[in-house]
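pipeline: protein-struct stage 2 | run 1193 | Renin receptor
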Amino acid sequence: MYHYIIILVLFILSVLGDSLTVLRSPQYVTFRDGQWPISGEKIPDLVALTMGFSIHEDLDWPGLAAGSLFQRPRANALIVVRGLDSLDFPKNISSYPLENPVPFTLDSVANTVHTLFADSTPVVLQLAPSEERLYMMGMANTVFEDLPVTLQQIRGRLSQDGSVLTSLPLVSLSRNNEADLLFLSEVQVLYDISALLQKHKHLAKDPAPDLYSLELAGLEEIVRRYGTDSPQFTDATRILTSALQKFADDVANVYSNNAVVEVVTVKTFEAPLTRKSRSILESKQISNTGNPYNLAYKYDYDYAVVFNIVLWLMIVLALSVIVVSYNLWNMDPGYDSIIYRMTNQKIRMD
């Protein structure tokens, strides 16, 4: 009876609660099928593990299997959608209930990328269009230099040719409504990022992994203005679902299926997020003068390969020494050694 209650609770969480959905992942990053809930505060640790980084505390979550020692994704893209608990993605995609939906950021993962690959040019893009919050590092300053990030810039982009206002069937959504424009501006940002990635496919050849973090709140404004039973909400969820799937396909294509794309859908966060705002198009690198945080030494992208080569070579050499030492210890000098055998013959001849 107890097991049935647990199954029922997990089923209710998977249907009614917030969710984490994995749209794309390489073959060597395995997400197990199941309805294991994961806490919102553990999402940054999950992203770090999928990229092959270590974390301070073990992630006690069975949804992610142990990864390959020799491969790790070239990029990770996480999109947070506020305003609803789930989207209508295909059934064959891994999805997990999200519990304790507290606000989180990927700042720790971005700092790890910068620390480990300071000599390379990783792409780190963190963007929240509705709050005009942007942080870019490395090659992102060049690739996404022309990306509209402020609401004024995005509205200007919507008026240009090829925008989502002309390419998408808006149906019940209006270009004259503030809430609708906010939602469509975030969809436009997704399309523009995809277009820039397709234009700069050389990003995937860089040895440093890339990190993308987007927070979309336009759907939350749609819900606040029209409600979840409105045709505007239905059309918005349809447009957003299609845009996210296209974005995932484009990222996977640019990185040759060596990228992880996750979507977190949360109806509302339990607590407001307080964080320092960063300047638009920030290009200043993080300084680490004198190593004040006692960080470990830096290693390159081939660290895992070199480590395994050295480890197994040492094991083979150690076993060889043990075998040779054992045979020498149990050797009969008068019978097994040619040196002693020739010495005995010379003594007899004398």
